[in-house]
Design a protein that fits this description.
Blueprint: E1 2-9, H1 13-25, E2 31-34, H2 42-50, E3 55-56, H3 61-64, H4 72-81, H5 84-93, E4 98-100, E5 105-108, H6 114-126, E6 130-132, E7 137-143, E8 146-151, E9 155-163, H7 169-176, E10 182-188, E11 190-193, H8 197-200, E12 206-214, E13 220-227, E14 231-233, H9 235-243, H10 245-250, E15 254-260, H11 266-279, H12 295-304, H13 318-329, E16 331-336, E17 338-340, E18 346-351, E19 356-357, E20 362-363, E21 369-371, H14 385-401
Parallel strand pairs: 1-2, 1-9, 2-6, 9-21
Antiparallel strand pairs: 3-5, 4-5, 7-8, 8-9, 10-18, 11-14, 11-17, 12-13, 12-15, 13-14, 15-16, 19-20
Helix pairs in contact: 1-6, 1-14, 4-14, 11-13
This protein binds flavin-adenine dinucleotide.
Residues 9-15, 34-37, 40, 42-43, 46-48, 52-53, 136-137, 164-166, 168, 170-171, 343-346, 373-375, 384-387, 390 line the site of flavin-adenine dinucleotide (FAD).
Length: 403
């Protein structure tokens, strides 16, 4: 049996971050990471389309927490101790400069996730953290004051353990044997499948700022909307998928959304269209997009309002004006299924928030058992917030584990 002071289960974002920080804070401790894969940090590698969206340029804890459909309340305290600015400083101190993109997402200046991986691997080496690959943890047992950890290959003993296995159903099952309650996982951060004539031929078109309501629910979001080959994506949709993860799963991903493409009330839009009818009387309705809408989207909405290609503004009758106003401000689309958002996806669910002490990230049920990252029932919208949760939890746990 191999004895260590600290064992980290899971060599992903949270596991590496915790191990390195424990080693920095207390160089006396013997620390090992047990990772089931032949390599670790695989999600970091593919994250952010291979660029790793490390965090988000939001520096106010009260604002930052609003990006977490699950974990909003619980992360407020932790973010006061370690958040975005600390993440940036941490990486900068280790030679990894981060840059901010227009929408607030932060990436390594190198534009490759390999920079983050190299940084972690260098740091573990430098601080003598042992990283043991091909070690799948099969059981975790209490052994007096210590923990016994059994992998398919070996047995380990440690005084303190941190479980950072991300969204691993097997580990959640194992933790149930330690009496932890697991909130059943459902996907979060997905795109909507929509088979609709209006968007069929216009993939790639972006409406810059729309409002979307899931009909029959209070789920609402706003932001950019992207038409894809199979439906719709971009922040307005991804936010709904995250905040509505449970509700949309219960609907089996079959529901209707109402889109306001121009963020205007129907009546105001109708008035504006009447004005255009006078101002642009002799002009073709189809050819001149209005309300800053992309031309191809405008054309689809016009055609869906039973307005033909030849129609001029002056020719529009009351029904056509009303139909166009409805298409612009209350367009209904039927969603039938979901697709994976390739840049980032997470799982809602995990260890019940009530069973974690967010001052230390220690289990409330067992002493010297800690959690960090996606294993806990915390997840965020897209933009670097999921990693920030991993860094924050891992850092705070490291402070207590290293004592
Ligand atoms: C395609 C994709 C892109 C993403 N991009 C971004 C992004 O750009 N920005 C962002 O903020 N978030 C992103 N995310 C989300 C982010 O990757 C996760 O939230 C984050 O990796 C969670 O970290 P973690 O350490 O909790 O889990 P993970 O990074 O998943 O690490 C868990 C580790 O535990 C290991 N493990 C599991 N079970 C066992 C076991 N029994 N024994 C030993 N080891 C085990 C796994 O092999 C894995 O290495 C993305 C996710 C995906 C899928």
């Amino acid at each position: 049996m191999k004895q260590k002071d600290v064992i980290i289960i899971g060599g992903g974002a949270a596991g590496f971050f915790a191990a390195i920080n424990i080693a920095v804070q207390n160089p006396e401790l013997t620390i090992a990471i047990l990772e089931k894969g032949k390599e670790g940090l695989q999600k970091v590698k593919i994250s952010g389309g291979g660029r790793c969206n490390v965090t988000h340029a939001e520096f106010i804890p009260q604002e930052l927490v609003l990006n977490y459909p699950r974990g909003e309340k619980e992360l407020l305290g932790p973010f006061h101790k370690f958040m975005t600015g600390d993440t940036i400083a941490w990486f900068e101190e280790r030679g990894v400069a981060l840059k901010i993109e227009e929408d607030g997402r932060m990436f390594p200046e190198s534009n490759t996730s390999q920079t983050i991986i190299d940084c972690f691997l260098n740091e573990t080496k430098k601080h003598q953290v042992e990283v043991l690959y091909s070690q799948t943890v099969k059981s975790i047992l209490k052994d007096g004051d210590a923990w016994s950890i059994i992998t398919q290959a070996e047995e380990f003993s440690a005084k303190k353990i941190l479980v950072a296995t991300g969204s691993s159903p097997k580990m959640w099952k194992l933790l149930e044997t330690l009496d932890h309650k697991i909130i059943q996982p459902v996907p979060s951060l997905f795109t909507f499948n929509i088979n609709d004539k209006r968007i069929k031929d216009i993939p790639g078109v972006v409406a810059q700022n729309v409002e979307i309501q899931v009909v029959g629910t209070s789920l609402f979001s706003e932001g950019p909307l992207l038409i894809t080959h199979v439906g719709m994506s971009a922040p307005s949709i991804l936010k709904l998928s995250a905040f509505g993860a449970l509700e949309l799963a219960a609907l089996d991903y079959k529901f209707t959304i109402e889109i306001n493409f121009i963020k205007m009330a129907l009546e105001d839009c109708l008035e504006a269209l009447k004005g255009l009818k006078l101002d642009l009387a002799k002009k073709s309705v189809l050819k001149a997009p209005q309300f800053d809408l992309p031309k191809r989207l405008w054309q689809q909405l016009v055609l869906a309002s039973k307005i033909t290609e030849e129609t001029r503004w002056a020719d529009l009758n009351k029904n056509q004006l009303e139909a166009l106003a409805a298409q612009l401000t209350k367009a209904h689309f039927n969603v039938d299924g979901k697709s994976t958002f390739k840049d980032e996806f997470v799982t809602a669910g995990g260890i019940d928030l009530k069973e974690v002490n967010f001052k230390t990230f220690e289990s409330k049920l067992h002493k010297n058992l800690y959690f960090a990252g996606e294993i806990i029932n915390i997840d965020a919208i897209t933009g670097g917030f999921n990693f920030q949760n991993a860094w924050t939890g891992a850092y705070i746990a490291s402070q207590h584990i290293s004592k």
